[in-house]
Write a structure and sequence with these properties.
This protein is an alpha/beta fold. It has helices at residues 41-52, 54-59, 72-82, 95-99, 141-151; strands at 11-13, 19-21, 29-34, 62-68, 88-90, 103-108, 111-116, 119-123, 129-133. It is globular, with a radius of gyration of 14 Å. The chain starts with 10 loop residues before the first strand and ends with a helix.
């Protein structure tokens, strides 16, 4: 996937039991932040930062969704524990993660494995990928994404 391409469609379950699709966000900007695992330190900070800026994103005409491979029960526990205000999507089969380039080879302690690559994608109101952040560093990231959304 590359900037300028049409965003890949998706249909996945979200916290609260509903289903979310890309077409639900037609004609508005959308931020997708892919995080490795619910309730880990970096992922928690990132989700809290996006929640903190939720009103600013809304004012910029931009919706925000968090996506991981965690089951819905883990997503809901994460949401409730940290009072998160961003819808959380479960992609247990990695279909959306792969389509958006957020699933790939990682390494830790000398071992290589497949996992979620911390990635954020900004989709314009035209349905095309406007910006991709790969190998995201959490600190200040949500603010940077908000600035990019405002500039579209």
């Amino acid at each position: 996937m590359a900037e300028g391409q049409k965003a890949p469609a998706f249909r996945l379950p979200r916290d609260g039991g509903n289903v979310v699709t890309l077409s639900d966000y037609a004609d508005q900007k959308l931020v997708l932040f892919f995080y490795p695992r619910a309730d880990t330190p970096g992922c928690t900070r990132e989700a809290i930062d996006f929640t903190r800026l939720k009103g600013d994103f809304a004012a910029a005409g931009t919706a925000v969704l968090g996506i991981s491979a965690d089951p819905l029960k883990a997503q809901e526990k994460f949401r409730d524990k940290h009072s998160l205000g961003i819808p959380l999507i479960s992609d247990e089969h990695h279909e959306m993660l792969q389509a958006y380039g957020a699933w790939g080879e990682k390494s830790m302690y000398g071992k290589t494995f497949l996992g979620i690559l911390r990635t954020t994608v900004l989709i314009g109101s035209d349905g095309k990928v406007a910006r991709i952040w790969r190998n995201v560093r959490v600190d200040g990231h949500a603010d940077e994404v908000l600035a990019a959304a405002r500039s579209l």
